[in-house]
Design brief:
Length: 231
């Protein structure tokens, strides 16, 4: 009996290790993740289907916040550069996209507080062309960090800005609010696909991050609840 109990303990420990390494793999359709308080330890870590360098990308998400300070909406770091892809909502207005340390700021897009914002950002490493969309409105195209892909194993965090690879979180940079429908493609998807996403219609899910089949882990104070978007 004792040997059986020891075997079961080892099995449970092994399952714990597997679960800790791979996190949850879930269909989050109709769900949202909530980070309700400002902390330096509340976050969502996403595991993407990366198999090659990122030469282009589209990232989309919907978020809801009341906070008026700068806050990190999306942070992708690699061992060689913790500012490979960063998206910020700024206190002074506008959205800032950082690619490999360089940045552009887009003004004039919706950034309402206490309301859902549907956001997409695109970037092509060959040309550097980048564009942002919010609630169906798009920005003019700008040039950001052309001539070079993003290499290395990505660490992707929602809710915090990575000041180092996988860490270096600061409470005053954290996102406080709700997030849903996060998708990431390793290409610049068509404007029609982006419009479909914005309008909550059918679209091709992200091939790197897919909210309908998302592998993730959480830390700190994070809740999963039914989304009120499109109610």
């Amino acid at each position: 009996m004792e040997s059986v109990l020891k075997w079961m303990e080892k099995l449970l420990f092994l399952l714990f290790l597997i679960y800790g390494c791979y996190g949850e793999h879930q269909d989050l359709s109709g769900k949202k993740l909530i980070i309700p308080i400002e902390t330096s330890n509340s976050f969502v870590k996403l595991s993407g289907n990366f198999s090659k360098p990122v030469i282009a990308m589209t990232m989309c998400q919907r978020f809801f916040t009341e906070v008026h300070r700068d806050q990190s909406l999306f942070s992708l770091a690699t061992p060689s550069d913790f500012k490979d892809i960063n998206l910020w909502m700024q206190s002074k207005g506008g959205y800032k996209l950082i690619i490999r340390g360089d940045s552009v700021t887009i003004n004039g897009l919706p950034e309402n507080r206490n309301a859902w914002i549907s956001f997409c950002g695109t970037w092509d490493s060959k040309t550097g062309l980048t564009q942002m969309w919010a609630n169906g409105r798009r920005s003019a195209s700008k040039i950001l960090k052309p001539n070079g892909p993003i290499n290395g194993k990505p660490s992707i965090i929602l809710g915090q800005n990575q000041g180092s690879y996988g860490g270096g979180f600061v409470a005053l940079q954290s996102f406080v609010g709700d997030v849903t429908d996060v998708h990431f493609w390793d290409s610049v998807i068509s404007p029609c696909q982006i419009k479909s996403y914005m309008q909550g219609k059918n679209f091709t899910p992200g091939n790197i991050l897919n909210w309908k089949a998302l592998e993730f882990t959480t830390g700190g104070t994070v809740f999963k609840e039914i989304s009120d978007y499109n109610c």
